[in-house]
Amino acid sequence: MSTPPLLTLEGLTKAYPGVVANDSVSFAIGEGEVHALLGENGAGKSTLVKMIYGLVKPDSGRMILRGAPYEPAEPRQARADGIAMVFQHFSLFDALNVAENIALGMEKPPALRDLAARIREVSEAYGLPLDPFRTVGDLSAGERQRVEIIRCLLQDPKLLIMDEPTSVLTPQEVEILFETLKKLKSEGTSILYISHKLEEIRTLCDHATILRLGKNVGECTPADTSARDMAELMVGTALKTPERSAKAFGEVALDITGLSVPAPSAFGTALKNVHLAVRRGEILGIGGVAGNGQDELLSVMSGEVTCARDAVKFDGKPIGHMGPTARRGLGVLTAPEERLGHAAAPDMSLTENALLTGSVREGLDNKGFLKWGATRSFAERIIKGFDVRTPGPENAARSLSGGNLQKFVIGREVLQRPEVLVVNQPTWGVDAAAAAAIRQALLDLAANGAAVICISQDLDELMEISDNFAALNEGRLSAPRPTAELTVDEIGLMMGGAHGMEVAHV
Amino acid sequence: MIRLEKRPQPSRAWSLATPLMAVLATMLMGGLLFAALGKPPVEAIRTIFWEPLFGEFAFYYRPQLLVKGAPLVLIAIGLSLGFRAGIWNIGAEGQYIIGALTGAGVGLAFYPMESWIIFPLMILAGAFGGWAWAMIPAVLKTRFGTNEILVSLMLVYVAEQFLASMSLGLMKNPEGFGFPGSRNLQQYDSAHNAELIAGTGMHWGVVAALIAVIFSYVLLNRHMLGYHIRLTGEAPRAARFAGVKPARLVLFCLGASGALAGLAGMFEVSGPSGQVSIDFNVGYGFTAIIVAFLGRLHPVGILLAGGLMALTYIGGDIAQGNLGLPSAAIQVFQGMLLFFLLALDMLTNFRISIGKPEVV
């Protein structure tokens, strides 16, 4: 690179008790460069950017910003030095409007009227349409992200750090975001882009640094490197692509007709006239941006929320009125998205958590009296069969990492030989190798004649495993279509992200 | 700098050690309190903890331990089921009173007939009375979503009015020379909850408390219902996912705790107390809340905690008599016990680490 880099990291090391999060990581981000930081969950990406943003102090190593030593003691100092960050989880107050939210994050906020004018100015300049007086609670995830981005842009940053920005966006929203980022880049702003979505990185980024287990294991130019090569660098081993065997579908196993359920709470989503049918051997993928009724749809299928008898049918028998236990008896099993507190009780042992859904089908009780021996061996089978990393089944669920607990939760249902399995975000927060194993397990289930519904926000996942695809938008489910015939654009339209959107006019 | 770090999972060793540490801390701070009141601290602590068990008059005090401990344990066991599930019955005192009234009412209705059937009927009536009183907050909660804490607590005061009315009216002893209070059941053989072995303090209430401990242990550790109770307390959403019906659990937990409190009241009125009187209730229903937490909501722990609490009651009485300690000081002492227990409880889930803070 001819110009000196904007920010250079040299040998950054940060250790937490029991784990080295970053082990002497070095790389440089050039002026006006979009630099990708790649790695699996737990590879140390978050710790690294927290050090750059002044949230965490490195144990050793140094950073150089434009030739001068850079040691931010707190985010305020990092911001003063021109570094801004958009977090994966938004820190916005639902009840306040956009301008008020932005004012809250400023040191010396100007009058709200002036601020609103500047917000309009910036949002138009960067193709991020946003009304400063709208209440944040009414905004979509993509619009909330714009609030966070504009909050950063108002500081006129030199380096913008974005942590997994596209995980909550529809394809169209991703496109808008990319246009914005390209415009920023053309103005000389550097961007540090964290993601594990490889195709995105290939289209957007100039340079990529790959972290594995806290170490910098390689750099590449994404445009010239295949996604598979990058994935293998991330994982460290050759990847196994899940295999599917072409097979004819059987009878309809689960059938939902004209299902409408009011929203369970003020921030929930009502389900409106949902129809779906899934046949034995079929995997139905349900996409959609988070908060469009995924949780509610799952709870209707699990029996946590009951409805009219005929609205949900299993093998032609009405089961809408049945609770979770009765449905498990029939073989209709579910795995909710939220692991801690919903799919599993955090403070209970894995053995006790195996009992949570396993008692009916695994025969873990005798007239109400518990068989702890059998329960324990069921838990051990899950741990073994799904490679759950834990010292043993007596450990509390909360002591497991998110990915490991996810493997346990999915394994618990898969091992119960379901007739119908409904999973929500089955590979969320799980590393690539384990995600592949979970997807393979779902494919195997379907191949053995079970009907599988996979609700997910990971479109790549749905494209990979599902036979048919439907999208949830504001509690309405689109008609399912064969996945193989769909293009990304069509999926985006099905997800309903199209309305009120336009690609940035740059 | 001292910080708290969350443990990856609750520490078993600390969960056993903290009740002991709480007792020691209470002794220490209680000693300071007594010293500040100008009483000899070591002597006072010794009087409270040693005198009832091994002192000169222990032969008199030891049976009292059972008499005081049994209702505490019986009520606390019932409360612990609900507390485990996040269902807060604060009105055990009221259920205790109503159980005593219905139990004694059945006994008094049969007077002066003598039959072996009377006492078992009184037991059933006592349990039913407590159960029915607890069903009021239970049904209101499941039907209308009212707060069971407030309803059950307020019903204590209603029950106290009932008690006063009964001892002055319907149940008043017709041969009592106009004094308030019912006939003395101790003088009515068929209804008397007498000592099973003379001089030990061992009455049917003690037996019932021990049975309740065993039942509760089996329920919580070996039965699906107990598992569902624990699951509901730890993760209500996971419990619904597991198929637990919250309303049924509310009915069961409030019903069971009410029935046990009613039993305790019935055994008390037909035994140690003997008669329905205006000042019949002495706060067992409230103290049992402390006992339940002191015993970490665990059946065996509650058994031990009930004994300890009974000890501080009796020891406190002795200290009042011998050393002239004010009764308020004894109550503060008991309050300290709960305070330290709850404060030290944190060590089960957190570890203290000393060092420089980590910026995260």
From the structure above, extract its key features.
heterodimer; A: 506 residues; alpha/beta; Rossmann fold; 2 domains; six-stranded mixed β-sheet; 23 strands; 33% helix; 23% strand; disordered C terminus; B: 360 residues; mainly alpha; ABC transporter involved in vitamin B12 uptake, BtuC; two-stranded antiparallel sheet; 14 helices; 2 strands; globular
Task: Please outline the helices and strands.
The complex is a heterodimer of chains A (506) and B (360).
Chain A: E1 7-16, E2 19-29, E3 34-38, H1 45-52, E4 60-65, E5 68-69, H2 75-80, E6 83-86, H3 98-104, H4 112-125, H5 141-153, E7 159-163, H6 171-186, E8 190-195, H7 198-204, E9 207-212, E10 215-220, H8 227-235, E11 252-261, E12 271-279, E13 283-287, H9 294-302, E14 312-314, E15 317-318, H10 324-330, E16 332-335, H11 350-362, E17 365-366, E18 369-370, H12 372-385, H13 402-414, E19 420-424, H14 432-447, E20 451-455, H15 459-465, E21 468-473, E22 476-477, E23 481-482, H16 488-494
Parallel strand pairs in A: 3-8, 3-9, 6-7, 7-8, 13-20, 13-21, 16-19, 19-20
Antiparallel strand pairs in A: 1-2, 1-4, 4-5, 9-10, 11-12, 11-14, 14-15, 17-18, 21-22, 21-23
Chain B: E1 2-6, H1 12-36, H2 41-49, H3 51-54, H4 58-84, H5 92-110, H6 118-144, H7 148-168, H8 204-222, H9 224-234, H10 236-242, H11 246-270, H12 284-294, H13 299-323, H14 327-349, E2 350-354
Antiparallel strand pairs in B: 1-2
